[in-house]
Amino acid sequence: MPAPYPQLDRQRLLIKPLAQRVSKADASVLRFAKDLPPEITQADRDRLQVIAQKMLAAKARGGANLLTYGAHLFRNGMSPLIIDMMKRGLIDQLTTNGAGGIHDWELAFHGRTTEDVGRYLDEGQFGIWEETGLYQNLALALGATEGLGYGQSLGKMMAEERLVVPSLDELKSQIGQAMGGQGAHLAAKAALFEVITGLGLKPGVIELPHPGREHSLLYQAYQLGIPLSICPGIGYDIIYSHPANHGGSLGQAATSDFLTFADSVGRLEGGVYLSVGSAVMSPMILEKALSMARNLAIQEDRPLNDFHLAVVDMQPGTWDWKKDGEPPNKHPAYYLRFCKSFSRMGGDFEYYEMDNRAFFQNLFEQVTLAQLGQGSP
């Protein structure tokens, strides 16, 4: 049998507390949500009015409204507007990447987020911070033993403001029961055992106040019972630098979240899919989830083709994907990969070359005006 290739030992890393990190963003970013919406063209305003009407129609007819976003939507201070729409019942599923979950959590827990990547790379310290790495990974390891997904595990930690570490004897008993067919989530419990022993954690309660959680999408989604899925890439995020990171725990939590996302995609008929600032993760997860959801819909003889895809990014979009379809492979627009992927999914696809703050603030205004016009609160 060949020996495994050498691996870096994360136990040897010098891990520093968040208090020693200089962060570039704090809760003041939330002020942007109160600003007047940035000016956009009348044509774009008309297009956003159509999205607003479609979102209200979806709510009325039982279609799902899904928001998939990159971390910058949160860092640009849009969470108060998103939370408002969640509370109005206009968003049925949120999905982000690992960075989206990290910035959201750090702002709620630490009050600051976003480090100077260049500076800390030079110092060999980028991403190597105790609280983010320990508490997020531990929350995932604990949540996975209950069958919870990535986003729900973080939301639970924020709502309860604590993590409870079981004793090794208790965990051994649970593992034994699961092996005998008397319990679930055997692999997750074994992974948690490895995390606890690897870190030398003592059993008991770890109190974790989250003073800024009211503006957290993770927390509010958990409280409202709205799924917030986190679909990460292995090695993409700073929590992989911490020895508390366990591929088994994270993999189970992330897979659970992807399947929750896919379940929501199955209710997209008559709904709206908003992809804001996510040119890689969003089209990749949607095409797989949509294929699975259509597979089931075809078996059940029900449609899954009538939905609106609104894709927002800053990359120049000179091709009219809605009018002209997919460009020839000799045209530069063909290599705008995310638009090509979305254009193949069916439904009604439109691309918005727009700053995500301008998009979301103006969409929020149009949704509010549309609801007032219907006499909604």
TrEMBL record:
This is Deoxyhypusine synthase.
